[in-house]
Amino acid sequence: MVVNIGNFGDMLLSRPAGREAFMMAKSYVFKDIVPSDEIVLDFNDVKVLTPSWADEFITGFKAEYTNPLQYINTENPSVSASLKYSG
Q1: Structural element, H or E, at residue 71
Q2: Whole domain around residue 78: which residue ranges?
Q3: Could you report the per-residue pLDDT of 19-28, keeping only the tens digit for each?
Q4: How many domains does the chain have?
Q5: CB < 8 Å & 24+ apart, contacts of 21-24
Q6: pLDDT of 27-40, one tens digit each?
């Protein structure tokens, strides 16, 4: 399953916003996943990603699910730097 993180906005800045995005994804996007599904987080449309937003979303996912996570389109310096510091 590919999740377009850009659907949550192009400037992902705060811990509360990351938590809210994860809760929305949990309710609507991840509701039907099974443990064998690979989850791909696509950062294509993201301009700014902070470590706090990424931490809330990624750590929230890892706490709830055991699915393998992959990241794509992480060339943006903001995205790549933030992913180094989160889950």
Answers
A1: strand 69-72
A2: 2-84
A3: 999 999 999 9
A4: 1
A5: 21/53, 21/56, 21/57, 22/56, 22/57, 22/60, 22/61, 23/60
A6: 999 999 998 899 99
